[in-house]
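We include this case.
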Amino acid sequence: MSVIGIVCEFNPFHNGHKYLIDSVKKDGDTVVCVMSGNFVQRGEPAIADKRIRAKTALLCGADLVIELPVAFSVAGAQTFARGGVKLLDSLGVVDTLAFGSECGNIEMLERTADAIESEQVNGEIIEILKTGETYAFAREKAVRKIYGGDLADILHNPNDILAVEYISALNFLHSKIKPKAVLRKSVLHDSTETEGVFASASLIREKMKKGESFKEYLPHNAFEILENAIKNGNAPADYAKLDIAILAFLRKATAEDFSDVPDVSEGIENRIIAAARNATTLSEVFDNSKTKRYTHARIRRIVLCAFLGIKNSHLACGLPYIRVLGFNDKGRELLHKAVKTASLPITVRLSDISNLGTNAEQIFQLESTATDIFNLTLPKIRECGTEMTDSPVVI
């Protein structure tokens, strides 16, 4: 039987995610999900606490959910993908990495992954970047010039871009895990349109925030969990609650405060600081800091990393442990097996982390701080320290 890995955010878990799991999971298979914690790659809080989201996954087909630490979950596509794949590979039991894809063609995705690693493409990227283009645009243009439109078009689709990064990460790690692409059966990423029972996660989040119905777009179990969370004031998270705090941080910030923040270069920190002095909302900071080279998403990630205290040094130290967010009986069995095969220590209890050294303690402290701040974005604000009191989800 296969052990299938999925790198995800489940923000929130919807019918498209259920379709992905159902498409790859056969009788006897086990599904392990590496999931972002309380902050996600968009550079903002997740719509609900990570344990709530882990529970929805476990009730809808996942067997084990482990956490992608915040320094990696709010990073660019390459770092995000490498972090997730590294955790799956480190378990020593995963044989397949599954992901959604707009093209659904694993051969094309693998060829594209090889293309972006070629010296020719990287040389061309450097030249295009000198014109002020974004890295994503430069890479797509370089691949189009050297390898043609078929491969370049792959780099135009959000899920295909991540799929290519997952395959590239497998190659980088010399992993034995095999990639498996599942043709995306849902609406386009960030689409405001719906297709039957499928809707984008961004549209569902907007409906949750506005108090509109979103029931039809989620599996029944996932909807019940999130509906209950909303009733109890545990969702939806609202980034706007941090506006004043982050604006205050930016208004007193100096360039030095951004010196070791991931993705900062070419003086973008000065533009962000200047924008904050005139802005009255965080959205205005993002809008006024954006340039041809720096996308809205990249600006959001930089600001969030600076505010949370995420540094390049956190990424450079790598992943110090595999932290379990939740499991069912099958997941428990897999954990027992993985204890013997894993190349990183598996942590379920807090006491496990205290014995793992300075790097592990720093990564966990960063996680604790992020959770304390995330708790301020909830309808019913939670106290500090929940990272140390909330238990893994057991189904």
In short: The mean pLDDT is 95. Residues 358-374 form the longest helix (17 residues). The two ends are 21 Å apart (CA to CA). The CA atoms of residues 104 and 338 lie 30 Å apart.
